Amino acid sequence: MRRQKSVRRKRVEGTVANGGPRSYNQSMIRLANYTKALDRLAALERDEEADREFDRVCAEVLGIDFGDLFDADVKRIDPTVSSAGIAAGVCRSLGYDIAISGSQTVTHWWGFSVLIVAKSEGIVPSDPALRAKRREAIEADDLLHADDPDEED
Fold first, then answer.
1. Does an H or E element contain 41, and which?
2. Neighbours of 105 (CB within 10 A)
3. Does residue 121 sit in helix, strand or coil?
4. DSSP symbol at 50
5. pTM attached to this predicted model
6. Distance (Å, rounded) from C-alpha 124 to C-alpha 63?
């Protein structure tokens, strides 16, 4: 009589933006389900409207936007999501699918990816009072560095 080997489920972990181990999320959120209007506006080159729609999707799906991040946060996360393919893998490991098809990602994939990593690291407080203080500090920092020649818009 042969014994069957018992197979244990391993917890798969990865490191994201030096934020420590993150577990792979089994319930995937497909951003393509939320970005149809954004895709349409981008295709029509209605940039201001597309930016507003991007912010709306971020608020609905992620609960944060770029107003919640210091420039230093974005610069630190950027190498982690340096290309669409890498970003898709990182986001997938965090429970978000930014792919539309095997080789195509949602419009504004980079922005979504940076915010997904930031959210997963927990750098934006969930407490409204702490979040408001963080936003004030970010606005002050932006004013202090508004004329920096190294900054890009």
1. helix 36-43
2. 23
3. helix
4. H
5. 0.76
6. 10
Residue boundaries of the structural domains of the chain: 22-144
What six digits make up the tokens of 114? 């940076």
DSSP annotation string for 59-85: IIIIS--GGGS-HHHHHHHGGGG-SHH
Q: Give, in order, the Cα–Cα distances in Å from 107 to each of 11, 86, 100, 115.
A: 32, 15, 9, 14
The rounded distance, in Å, linking the Cα atoms of 108 and 9 is 35
Contact by Cβ (8 Å): 120, 64: no
Query: Which residue has tokens 């606005």?
Result: 139
> Could you tell me the two tokens for 40?
């349409």
Q: What mean pLDDT is predicted for residues 103-117?
A: 94
Short-list 77, 97, 86, CA closest to 29:
97
Phi, psi at 25, each rounded to 5°: -90, 130
Could you tell me which of 100, 64, 86 has the C-alpha nearest to residue 16?
86
pLDDT tens per residue, range 2-25: 444 333 333 333 333 334 444 444
**Scanning the structure block, which residue is given the tokens 């951003």?**
31
**pLDDT tens digits, 51-83:** 999 999 999 999 999 999 999 999 999 999 999
